[in-house]
Request: fold
Amino acid sequence: MGIEGIGARVARKEDKRFITGAGRYVDDMVVPGMKHAAFVRSPYAHAQIRKIDVKAAQAMPGVIAVLTGKELKADGIGNLICGWMIHSKDGSPMKMGAWSPLAVDKVRYVGDAVAIVVADTKGQARDAAEAVEVTYKELKAVADVTEAVRKGAPQIHPEAEGNLIFDWEIGNAKETEAAFKKAAHVVKMDVINNRLVPNAMEPRAALGHYDKAEDHYTCWTTSQNPHVARLVMSAFYNVAPENKLRVIAPDVGGGFGSKIYIYPEELVCLWASKKSGVPVKWVADRSESFLCDAHGRDHVTHAEMAFDENHKILGFKVETMANLGAYMSLFSSATPTYLYATLLSGQYDIPAIHGNVKAIYTNTAPVDAYRGAGRPEAAFLVERMMEVSARQFGISPAELRRKNFITSFPHQTPVIMNYDAGDFAASLDAAMKEADYAGFAKRKAEAAKRGKLRGIGMSCYIEACGIAPSAAVGSLGAGVGLWESAEVRVNAVGTIEVLTGSHSHGQGHETTFAQLVAERLSVPLDSISIVHGDTDKVQMGMGTYGSRSGAVGMSAISKALDKVEAKAKKIAAHLMEADEGDIVIENGALKVAGTDKSVPWFQVALAAYTAHNLPGGMEPGLKETAFYDPSNFTFPAGCYICEVEIDPDTGVTEIVQFVAADDFGNIINPMIVEGQVHGGIAQGIGQALLEGAHYDPDSGQLLTASYMDYTMPRAADLPSFKVSTSNTPSPSNPLGMKGCGEAGAIGSPPAVINAITDAIGTEDLTMPATPQKVWAAIRSATKH
Amino acid sequence: MYSVNYHRASSVADAAKLIKKGDAKFLSGGMTLIPAMKTRLAAPSDLVDLNHIAELKGIKVSGKTVTIGAATTHYEVATDEKLKKVCPAIAELAGLIGDVAVRYRGTIGGSIANNDPAADYPAALMALDATVVTNKRQIPAEKFFKGLFETALKDDEIVTAVTFTAPPKAAYQKFPNPASRYAITGVFVTKGKDGVRVAVTGAGDNGVFRSKEIEAALAKKFDAAALDGVKVPSANMMTDMHASADYRANLVLVMAKRAVTAANAGA
Amino acid sequence: MSEVSLVVNGRRVSGVVEDRTLLVHFLREHLGLTGTHVGCDTSQCGACVVHVDGKAVKSCTMLAAQASGSTVVTIEGLADGADLHPVQAAFRENHALQCGFCTPGMIMASVDIINRHPDGLDEATVREELEGNICRCTGYHNIVKAVLAASKAMNKSKAKGKSASRAKQAA
Reply:
């Protein structure tokens, strides 16, 4: 490892602009003649649109255009799509209802877009949006999945009878039933995984610009995957052919999944730009983000686990209802199926598993992947089950887990996944040691003297990152391939640009990707630039989500570097009249191993471009491209331990320590990896203690629609975290990396709830475990 | 935000004149009014800015008599050394309002004129038996606060100051809403020559109120133990998604106990 | 419409704006100072924090007209030329930012926190003081570290400055 290469704690290259206020986010973009948009949104959760009258709005000061869904349809703009086909257990395809970017005849959730107003200023656009007169006939709404599937519930889409989108299964029902027949113990649980609002700090935004002279569109958008956005807007929404559409995702202020999807607003801004003849910018208010960004989680699950007399797991049965909201968002069908139920085996050797997932429409915002996406729901279920089972059996939670850990790899689970590497006991040992688990009883007794209830809980999570290979996901219904691309462009003087299909919105790619190049080509970090986020600059790529940028995106760079390195060595060998196989790259030069002969890196690059003296038949230039498709998912895993103290008088939970021991395989920059873990844990603690999106069950109004009611984790809500990593390299990619972006959010909620339930002595507690709920749980436990 | 006309008042008299324009509102710190305007929940035609009126600013302490100008910020109240000597409880309360950026701008006059049922100052003023001074009259706190967001103020009446006699013992305990950080329950207790006063904010379904049960128990003995077994009725408590009436009733008692302990420790 | 006139990052600026224009929009749209961000509409996230007359305030909760006559410092005006402010440097050294969106407000608020605590800070105080700034990326762990580190650095340089001036006086 060099001081700037793999494994170094290099300070981030991109920080300079962010700490000086020079970051460039979509809302910072200004195009000559640019105007501002506001959307008219439904105040009802479910209603028929009787009439839309735009006359008054058109007459308002500064108004340039008021456009509705009818005009959008007339221009041939397509409906929004879901990009992953799921088939129900009876073989029928999922029942997807139509999602018009601007609602035409019906609105299905509060916030559903009905019209767009373009005006000189944002204030004027807002004023005019209020003047658009929409006549609605309000219909009965349903916000909760259990209500939505009842007979007589409001029918949301004609395509999905009884609001059921699909009824899907995984694993083997018969074998699982057989396992339960042999069981000495069966533990049953009902679990709710609470609905969350992603809340990236930068609200979504779009700037659409139609250039009449060139007949060309440019869209600046807050996207985690600009190429996918271009593909979808072009191929499905008919905005423009791909060669006439440039999508730019500049600095993006956090995503967490919510900026994967192609929402109505960006394509409507593009269309409206052509229609109105001016560039159109829309920036969401936080209130709009609450209403209209894709939410996360929202599962209702019943689960049963069968054990033999020695507490070895025999089988696992899971029935889940997943709320997908009012429309199927881009990957909404994959999140509660292949990203969730495939992880039901956890870290455990479970011979038989059967999972059934029903996806259901409700009159709420669309639900899709949010940091972890399906895997937090699986981890919460499995890890609550392990903890509760251990308590019922009267054995230690660590012992029950150890007894059931998978210990040899590769391991084929009954739910598709083939775990390729791991050492689960190592993470558990590391976490227990760091947490001084053995000393807990003493700490609990000391806390009791102060009138506090102290509890400890653990979570041994596993997740799957870098969804792959493309052929496999294609067979499971994915509409896209899940590879990644890279181009390494060595300039004539030896500086380097790396064009990557990954997108950085906080992950620090400009640094870590450059570290990989610095390590491989032995050049200074400063001479390497990472280019991303612009479809005109970068070849087709798949973007950043599912912790894939390291394992998949960097592997693509690594493959391109292989080619660059090979060509550079050939040139160097030719220049030094040496054997290609003897060339090594060291200290900024290509050397003949074992001699003092060397050519500086920049001279090799220059030689490639002057082409005065290249090996016979070699093309000039030093630039290589690679598309990398991994052979398997990667499987980050680890153990989290949370210790809490609860004030029984108020129900307030304080996290007194939080330990994370993760196995991410090989790591490029430990500082950045730790940062990812910190952020993930904070979101997980947020889910466990603070955050929950609540809709009024009757009206379908979002009750937690701002930070006044939706509790975002703040500094004083959290402790400093104790994080460490161990390493079993992934054999499925050339860099041995697994991914670290989501682990914290996946592993932490069960650890927190296991700790609280340990402290208060009852399992009857839902997330978020607010002071009121904890206080009530303590009261009902002591009453019984 | 809807269109609005901004006016900067140079004196109380000037402000009283300007407020007659259209549907005008006074703007003090703006920490509640501007967010409400941004989300279009408030739509005044005109704003009369009170921030540049020198006579509304500052804290005077004379013996035990405290006078706080209406345009004095929460930050100034929280950090005023003279005030902290005679009545640390109100300084501590001010230090619990919002975050520091809010405290730099928000004012005591603005807060009490708004009378948010979850604001902190109303509890302090009721428990301190304070007097609200306006450009027209003096109003005892108990008559000033009238239910949710309602006060005794007339349309063109401007709060100019708050005045009270610092009691020997006082303390405030707040249980904040985890999201908004307003009080889910805040209890201000005082023990002065006229006895014990206990005012509760955040919990009641009709704004700030005095808790008779707790006052009676503490009148016998000003000690947390005196509140053991006291029943705080949940009948008139607010219920929302953050806290049920029962939970709020419990918090009133818990916060009252802690406030009494703090008041005794501070004395 | 109102004419507003203020000093921003050491420069006298003025403009005619709609009375409803917030200070943050005046900075971003009229002056092109886009480092100050808007992350919420309830005055809670703190992405918009700037210094007005030396105090950290939320520029989304103040009209430009209210700020007229004031002196404003934004994230763009914090560094001393090419030299980063110690808080900026500490944020980078401690990896206290990821997506960078909350960062300008976080840094401006942190400068104010450190200024108000000349005798130093501890972790609990920093966490309490950051109440008005929300970050979704970092879990605050490294932000807290950075503020503590910057506080130390600034106090040290102040002590140095003091002893230097004492030395001068003695001479």
DSSP finds six helices and five strands in chain C. The mean pLDDT of chain C is 94. Chain C has two domains: 2-77, 86-161. The radius of gyration of chain C is 17 Å.
